[in-house]
Write a structure and sequence with these properties.
- There is one protein chain.
- This protein is α+β, with helices and mostly antiparallel strands and 412 residues long.
- It contains 12 helices and 21 strands.
- 33% of the residues lie in helices and 26% in strands.
- It is globular, with a radius of gyration of 20 Å.
Length: 412
Amino acid sequence: MELNTYLEEYARLLVYSGLNVKPGQVVVCRAPVETVELVRKVVKKAYEKGASNVLVKYNDEVVSHERYKNAKDSVFENVYEHDICFLNDTAKEKACYLTLVGDDPDLMSDVDPKRMSTYSKVFRSKTKYWRKQLDFMECQWCIGAVATPAWAKKVYPELNENEALEKLWKAIFEMTRIHGDSVQNWEKHKQSFEKKVQLLNEMKIQSFHYQNSLGTDLIVEMPKGYIFAGGGSFLNDGTYYFPNMPTEEVFSCPKRSGVHGKLVASLPLCHNGAMIEDFYFVFENGKVVDFDAKKGKEVLQSILDTDEGSKYLGEIAFVPYGSPISLLNTIFYETLIDENASCHFALGTSYAECIEGGLEMSEEELLAHEANQSFTHVDFMVGTDDLSIVAKCEDGKEVPIFVNGKYTQLFD
């Protein structure tokens, strides 16, 4: 099958399964300028699915780099009203949002991370209504990967640009199951999560103990009424959609004040175009009290300085070593993909769907139920081939969840 045919099927998957566009719905698509060919196919598929309007916002990361390097500091302390209104107003119409990612992992390495974190914090505070509609299951959203020349060369530096681009597209199509009827493939994929989610939710887990040879030795307590989810999500009106394509994770929220010990990252983290490598955190009563990184420590500091909640964990996610993405044996320098090759956590806010009754709670109520709240949510990878995770249940029973980086037979 040639590239054009794969792109056609990928566009169909993103619209029909990723977003699951509803008749009469507004669709917002944000994408790199290099991906016009795919975006045009997405637009066509969205109208075929019944969208009332499709709005496309292109971004040029080279232009963004020049802005972050050369604009005045005051520029990053404000967000133009039209940018705020666009997202908040479309959210009021209950639009759905497709974000296509394919950034150059090294482009922003010479940018002051404080500039990016300042702007990100202001942007999130001004678009709080939009974020709430997404987080509280009123609007669908989906993030999908797109191959771009700079990203492809980072992943496959030994190849020329065309060869690297072709190989990256092939990997994206493989991990998103673009063979045959991709929509049906994802319906089967959805079913693969159900047993794991059910077991974890029935076990009444009090805490997890993580250990591996990298130095991770961490206790993660779970809040009362925790809920594990996996695959896709349901809107309040029952619409099912997949927020991430690809996805291999089963996730929940940890108890905000219940994380203790050392947690060592197993893969690099690319954050806002800057790399963080060989890093770790030490937690006491849920809060990061020490950390370090061989590369990008100042970027890590900027994440932790976002607000008080950014110093706590908001997500716990299980991905077995040997998942389809990890079998590619490639670091993609893109969290959307790398987090689905490895168990991971996230600093920052928790998902309201991960606590019983959370979708009806205010932020203050979620915090009172030990579900962390923050302006940020940054995933980082911790899984290894020797990772051990043991659950301690409320009745005192200890149950191995992962042995040698994989689910135990209990989850087969």
